[in-house]
Amino acid sequence: MDEATELQAVLQALAVAVDWRTDQASRGAATEFLEKLKAEEEPHRQASIAAHLVNSDQPEHARLFGFQLLQNVARSKWQQFPADERRRLAVYAFDLLRRCADTAGEPWSIRSKAAALMADIVKHEGSDLWKEMLPSLLSLSAASPIHAETVALVLQFVPEDVTVHNEDIEGNRRRQLLLGLTTTLPQILPFLYSLLDSNFAAALADMQQSKVDAARQHAAAVTAGLAALGAYAEWAPVPALASAGLLNACGFLLGSPDFRMGAADFFKHLAARRAPSDDQEAFNAAMTSVADSLVSAADASLDRITASAGAAPAGGAGGEAGGAGAGGGGGGAGEVDEGELQFAERVCEAMVAFAPSNLKRAAQQDDSRYARFFHAMLRFFECKFFPLHALALQLWLVLLRESAQSTSGAKDKRAAVILVPPDFCLRLLDVVADHLPRRPGEGEGEGDDDAWQEEFTNSGDYAQYRSRLMEVIRLVTQQQPLIAASKVASRIEAAVGATSAPPSPKAMAVLEGARMLEDAVMAAVPDAVMAAAAAHSTNPAILADDLGLIVEGVLQRLLCVQWSDPVLIELHSHLLDALGPFLKHSPPAAALVMPKLFELLGALPPTPLGVEPMLRPERSEDRLPRLQVCTSILRVARSADVALVPMLKAMVDQVMAIRQQQQAAVQRVQQNQPGAVLHGEIILLAEALLLVAAAAGPSEEAAVVEWLLAPIRAQWTDATWQNRYLSSPAALAALLLHTPGSGSQEEADCWTVYHTTMLLERIMRRAAAGGGSAGGGGGGGTGGGGGVVAAATPPPSPGTGKADGAGEGGTGGGVSHCVSPHLHWIVPPMLRLLHCIHSLWSPQVLASLPPALAPALLVGQQEKAAVLGQAGAAGKQEGVPLLVGGSGGGWGEGGGGMGGGGGEKQREAAALAIRRNWLKCVRDNCYGFLGMAAANAPAAFFSLPEPAVPNLKSLGSVTPQQQQFVLEVRAALADSVASMEARHLRLLQKLVLLPLVKACPPNLWPLWLGTLLPPILIHCDQWLTATWQRFLQEGLAGVGEAGGGAGGKADGSSGGNVGGERERERRGALKDELFQEKILRDLTRETCSLLALFPVLPQSSSLQAASIQATASALIMAGVTGSSVAAAGGAGAAGDERMDVHSVSSAANSLLHFLLQQHPEAAAACIRVAMAAMDWPDSDASHKAVLFNSGLVHMPELLAEPTAQPSEPAAQLREMVGRTMFAAAVQALTLESNAGIQAHIVALLRDIYLRLGPLTSAPREVLLSLSIPPEGLASFEAALKSTGSAKEQRAAFRTLLTGVAGNQLKAFAAQRNPTTISNVSGVIRTASNPSATTTSSSIDQSGPSIGLASFGNMPSNQ
Mean pLDDT in the chain? Predict the structure, then answer.
C-alpha cells in the first residue's frame, strides 16, 4: 500500500470513528485499525502519516490524531531514530508550533497539542536541545498574545512530571533535563513576569476600549502564564521567583476575579516548600511576602462571602457561642457566588499547607503576623460552608498537635514550633461547641444546612469529622486546662440560664453542645492535674487550685438545677456524669452527685410501657430519660468507684427499692395495669453496684453478687420452669410465639430470660477476677468499707454461702472469683437454653416451626448493617422499630418505623424483628458468660457440676458426673454444628472456644477439648473448604441460612412501586454478597486464630505420648496424605522470628501434639484448613495458618529416622509436609494479598527445607518442578550450607524463587514510591556520574510462565 492510499485509509477510518451515525461494528473496526497504527513498531511510517495528518487542510479530528501519533513516536520510539533524524524532527516540531501560532483562528486544542509535542521532544532529547531552542522560543512570543500563550504552554509542559518519577524518562536523563531547566531559569522567570505584566495591562486597556476579542486573547496569555508558573513553583528556587517579581505579581493577581484561581494555585504549590541550605534569609523574606498575600486574599474573600450571605463581617478576637465571620448566622440571606467559594477554598488550602512549614519563618521579623494568620484561619473555621470549615480544622489540628508536643517536652525535628495563643484556643472551643451537636440536615436556619448535608455520604464520614472536633477539644484542654474549664463553666451557665421547660430546639442544641464540650474537656484533663485540682493544690506550675474551683463551681451549679421535663432531666444526668474524672479524686463531690442522680431517677414518671417495650413507638421516648439516668449512675460508678465505697450501703438501699418497684410492676402488668421499672434499668444499676463493690473488697463484691443473683437462682433452679421452657426446642418456640405487648405471663417470662442472660453476662464482665479492682482489702482509707457493705447487704438465701478465700488460679494465694460459687446452678440451665436455640436451625426442628417463627431465624437487615459497618441506617432500612441492646441491656424502641401504631403488617414486622433480636442477644450473652467463666473462674468452671474447688491444682480425678456434664456441654455447643450458621459459629469460636482452650488445664484436655473440639474442627474443615472453593470460582460466598440463602428477604417489609422495588432488590443483592463474603472471612479468621493456639499451648507431662507410627497411621486414615491434601496453597505470616521458639521438646508438649496422638481426625482437619488457608486471599487468616504450619514442622513425628519402607506412616507425614505444604507455601507467594507477610512465608519454606531436606527429597523435587536447573539448585544448597544466619538463608530462598518465577510471585512485588524533587537550589551543580546511579534488576520479568500454575489445580480434600 503506497503512502497516499494508506493516508486515505486512515482518514476514512477517522471519519467512521467520529461519526455518531456509524453502526457499532463499523466503529469498532475503524478503532481497531487506528489502534494497530498507533502500535506500529516502525516509527518512520507513523511519523510520515502523522506529518500529513497535522496539516492545516485536514479536519480537526484528523489533526488531533496526527499529533497523538507524533507524541507516541516522541515518547516511546524517540531513540530508534538516528541523531540527525531526531534533530530534523525537533526542527519540524518547532516549525509546526510556529505555524499553529501564526494561523489565525487556530483552535486552542491544536495549539496545545503542538506545544505538548514540542515539550515531549525536549524531554526525551535532553537539555542541550532546550538550551538551543529557548531563545527562539521566547522571541516567538513577541508576535502576538496568541504566540505568547503558545510559548507559555511549552514552558508549562516541559517541566511537568520532571520532578517526579516518570516511566517514560530514564532517571539520569530526567536529572540532566532538570539541570538544564535550572540553568535557564534566569531567562524563563523574567520572561514569565514580563508576559504577565504586559498582557494583563493590555487586557485592561483593550477592555476600556471595548476590544473584547483582543482583551480575551491577552487574558488567555495571562492564564497560560500563570499555569506555566505553577509548573516551576514546586521546584524552582524560591528566592529566584521572588527576585523576578513573580511573588508580587501573583499576589496582585489574587485580587483579580479573572486570574485569581491561577494565582492561588501558584501559591498553593509554593506554600509547603522547604528552605534551602544556602540562602535562608532570602527564602524567609519570600515566605513573608507569601504569607501577607494569602492573609490579605483570605480576608477579602471572606468579607465578600459574609456580605453575600447576609452576615456581618468578622469582628474582634473573642466572642461566645456562635462566633463571627463567615460562620455567623443568617441562613439564606443571599446566594454566595460558587466561584468565590472555590477561590476561598483554594486560598485556604494554600494557607493550610503554608503554616506547618513556613509560618514561623514568615513571622520572624514581626510576631503580629501570627495573629493575622490565625485570625484568618479562625474565620475559615467559623465559616458555615463546610469545605472551608473542614480545611481549617485540618490546620488547627496540626498546630495543636505540634504545640502539645512542645508543651509535653517531646522532641520535634523542627526547632520552630508554633504555639496557639490562649485567646485563639478560647475561640476554637466556642466554634467546636457550636458544631458538635450539629448533625447533617440540622441547620441553624432554613437553607443553611444544605452544604453540610452533602458532605457526609455516610455515618462513617460524619463520625470521623466529629472525632476531629473532639480531638481539638482534647488538645486545647491538655495545653490550656484552665481556659477549657472556664469555657465549660461559661457555656453551662449560659445554657442552663437560658433553658426553660419545655425547651426549644435551639436551647436544646446549646445545652447539648455544652454537655459534649464538658464531656470532652473533663476527659482530656490529665489525671495528675485533675487529682491536684480536687486536692486544691497550690502548685503554681499547674494552677490546680484555680481549676478545682472552676470545676466545683460547675458542680454546684448543676446540683442546684431543678428541672422536671424528662428531656431536660436526661441532659442533666449527662452533665453530671461528665464530671466523673473529677469525682474520681473527690469523694465529697461524688457523695453529692450520686444522690442527685438517684433523685433525678425518682423524679421521672413511671415508664408507661409495661414490663417490656410494646409496639407503641409513640411512647418510645418516655423510657429513654430513665435509661439515661441509670447509665449516668453507671458512668459515675465507673469513674469514681473507690470514692463511692462509703456510699455502697445507700446505693444498695436505693437499688433495692427500685427492684421492689419492678416486682410490683410485674404484678400490675399481669393485671393489665401500667408498669413502672424496666429490666434494663435494673441491669445498669446492678453494674454500678458491682463496680463500687469491687472497689470495696472481695467480700463486699461477693455479697452484692449473691444479692443480685438470689432471685435468678430461685427461677433457674426451678425444675418446673426449666421443663416448661427449656425442655425442648418446641418449648422454646412456644415461649417466643407470644404476642408482643400482650402483657401475658409468656411475654413476661420471655423477657425475663433475655434480661437474666444479659445480667449474668454483665455480672461476669464487671466482677473483678481474683479480687477487688482497686480497694484491696476493703475500700482503703475511705472509712471502714467492709463494715458499711456488710450492713448494707441483705442476708443470703438459705443454702448459699460466701465465696471462700482460696485462690482461683493455679498460682494460689488470691481470692476466688465472686461468681464461682454460683456456676453450678447457672451453667446447666444456660446450656439447656443454648441447646434449644441451636436446635432451632436443625432441619428436623426447622421444618416443624410455625410460620410466624421460622423467618426469625434468617439474618435481619439490622445485623447485616452491623456486620458491614452500616448500623446507623439499619432502622430506617428495616421499617420496623429499631431494637438495640445498649450498655444498659433493655430493649428500646427507635423513633420511627411504625408511624403511630401502623397496620397489621407493620406489627407483624415488628414482632419478627423482636424475635430475631431476642434469639441473637440471648445466644451472644450466653456465649459471653461461658467464655468469661472459663477464663476468669477456671477452677470452678472445669470442676462442674461439682462444687467449686479452691484452685486448679485441687482438681482431682475425673468423676462420672463430670464426664456426663461435658457431654451436655458438647450437646449444647457442638452437636448442632452441622446446621449452625457461619455467623453463629464464628461467635461460638471467638467467645467460647478461644477462652476455653486457653484456660483448660492440660490434664483435662482429654475430657474437655477431646470432647468439644473434634466435631467443630471437622465441620469447619468441610464447610470452609467448600465455601472458599465456590467463592474463588464463582465470586459468591453463598453462605446459606436456615430456610433459604443469605439473600432472602428477612425483614418482612413490603415494597413500594415497581421501580423502587427493583432498585431495592439490586442494592439488597449487592449488600447480601458483601455480607456473605464478610461472614466467610470472619469465620476463616476465627478458625485460624483457634488453630494458631494449638502449637504453643503447653501440655502436661502426665499425658503419655503415642507412638509415631500410630499417629501417622491415623492421619493417613483420616485422609491427610501427600496426594489427598494437595488442595492446599496460599499465604501466611508467622511473625518475624517465626516458630524458632519451638524446639522439638516443646512441640511434643503442645495441644497440637495431643490432637495428633489422640484425635487424628480432628488433627487432620486442622492440617487441611491451615494448609488451604494459605491459598485463600485473606492475609489475616494466612498469618494464623502459618503459625500453625510452623508448629507442625516442629512436631517430633516429622523428625523420626527414616526407614527402608517408603510406606511407613512417618514417611507419609514427612511427604505431606515436605511436598504438599512446601508447594502450598510457594503458591502463597503468588497472591498479592500476601505482600505484607511474604517474609514469613519464606521463613516457613526455609524451615521445611532445612528440617526435612535430610529426611525426604520432596522439598527438592518441588523446587526442581519450578524449572530450576539442577546446577542452580546445587548452588542454592551450597549457599544455604555456607551460612548459619537465618536471615541470609531466607534471602537465598527469595533470590532463588524470584529468579525463576519473575513477576508471578506477586507477594514479592516491590511497592515503588514516586520520588519527588521538592526543592532545587539556586547553585548550579554538575551532573553526577550516570554509571553510579543506574540500577538493573536481576529478575527477568518477561520470561515464559513456570510450573506454578500446577499448584493451583491441586485436588480438593473435602
Answer: 77
